[in-house]
Amino acid sequence: MTAEPLLQVRDLVKYYHAGGLLAARKPPVRAVDGVSFEIGRGETLALVGESGCGKSSVGRTILRLQEPTSGEAVFEGQDVFRLGREPLRALRRRMQIIFQDPYGSLNPRMTVGAAVAEGMQIHRLASGAELERRVAALLEEVGLDPSYARRYPHEFSGGQRQRIGIARALAVEPVFIVCDEPVSALDVSVQAQVLNLLADLQRQRGLSYLFIAHDLAVVRQIAQRIAVMYLGRIVETGPTEALLADPRHPYTQALLSAVPEPDPGAQRRRIVLHGDLPSPSNPPPGCPFHTRCFHPLRNERCRTEVPPLRPITGTLAACHYAEVSAVEAIEAAP
Amino acid sequence: MTPLLEVRDLRISFPTGGGRITPVDGVSFALERGRTLALVGESGCGKSLTSLAVLQLVPAPGVIDPSSRIRLGDTDLLALRGEALREVRGRRIGMIFQDPMTSLNPVFTVGDQIAEGILAHFDVPRREAMARAERLVGEVGIGDAKARLTAYPHQLSGGMRQRVMIAIALAAEPEILIADEPTTALDVTVQAQILEVLDGLRESRGMAVLLITHDLGIVAGRADRVAVMYAGQIVEEAPTAELFERPSHPYTQGLFASVPRLEGPLSRLTPIRGTVPPPTAWPAGCRFRPRCPIVHPRSETMPPLLDVGPDHRMRCWLAEGET
Question: Domain tally for chain A?
Fold first, then answer.
């Protein structure tokens, strides 16, 4: 990894404004509310959180599939958010995306070969026999038979379609791929195949991933670093093993304890959060997590003052009282 | 002791353009009073269809084979029609599904929908039904119960809707709750809330639960017994602790090796090769044969469920070497 990160995102904000007659009166949905992170060459950063935390909006704005409200995203020295049409088109060769739904992201009337070839044609990377040769090589690289090029997406299982989606993303030889819940829709036996494939491709091609997911056990298999999001903000970030071994933010602790481990003897403390996620169009003041927090030290300060991300032990955590582990404090209490 | 629910040799078939398929093919199990049995498997293994058959809810043109038997105590469930069937559905066996949004009626309030279930099965005045609905809403952990009774489904979060579904299922005080992937559509912290509610109710009401899931993590520490399904059949069955300690069928072992873990040393996952075949492409003999890492001389003959240990059976010829 070189000193200069491949991607630097600073203070990314994405608000969605309601459409329709009364739009002006409705507060915007604050999907992403000031998110900053870096991704190095050949590195995977996992963006983890539950529905509505803003993780997918981060991925989509970085690729300019949606326009950001403010902030910057410097990729290979250029601010993606300030690029005009032509440079943006050129950039799309360098950055690609893989979606969750392998059924909805392929055109049902396009053969697999045409779907994989499309990007290479748009960017004029190959044509004729060379194009066919490259399509065959890509299908082989993702573990599919090259003869599948002549068939249609409906003939394939979910796992095979996800492989086609990966081949399609790889076709333009990107250096960076946003993987938006790429294995969430797959059965567990197939999920493991796709995770291994993504790890192998990363090693062979030196790819960087922004891996968006809700499953911490999945993320552990592929990411060097994790950023946990809650209500549009990163509440904790750090190296994968450090964050999983000693999470400091109460939300990370709750998220971790909620993962059901397939081991009847596992004696992990279960923390069951109370209440629902607050609405992102009306987030609570102060710490976004204070309405559901179980930290014994929580107080008035949490309701008024937004905690910044700051170094604790192995991670950065946005909690005023992260020096004291909420889980341990509860367990120690009589 | 006779089991509360007994399924014997259940076969469900569908006509297709290319002939009949049998997505549930000879499934047998027993659920004891107050116990939890988990049917575990990946998509298309037949676990949901099996649970639907218990209430005669197999979608057309599916047909339950006449030789199949499903008994609830002394009642032959597959012989029930009309009023007698209605009495079992909802009253003696409740059911909750994966997607609480499509299972709730969007134009009726939460209170109306719970009370409807109570009024359908008990001869009580409406006011009493509403009072019971309020108690149920509290019991499934919805705060401010009185106010929530007047809410419509779209005003509730996914987790709240699933709680409402549970309240509806409980309204008639069933002996058995069939929970078909009850938390699959929910976020993990919400899943933890719902599982806590279900665990509490199972204990306080002594209800038996048939839990249908793809997630071995949910089964651990919750189910008393596990039946693993693959390609329309039960391939392994044992008490939960035994199955997790000694998974014996190569498919079960493959499932465990595929699951990413949060704890323990990090290692590369060992997936099962290939994909789950559709019912039109099930091989003759052992159905797991094309994906199995082990080549067995008898695999072209379908193995029966064989003993691998006390109260532990699997559908694999390897069991013959073990006992």
Answer: 2
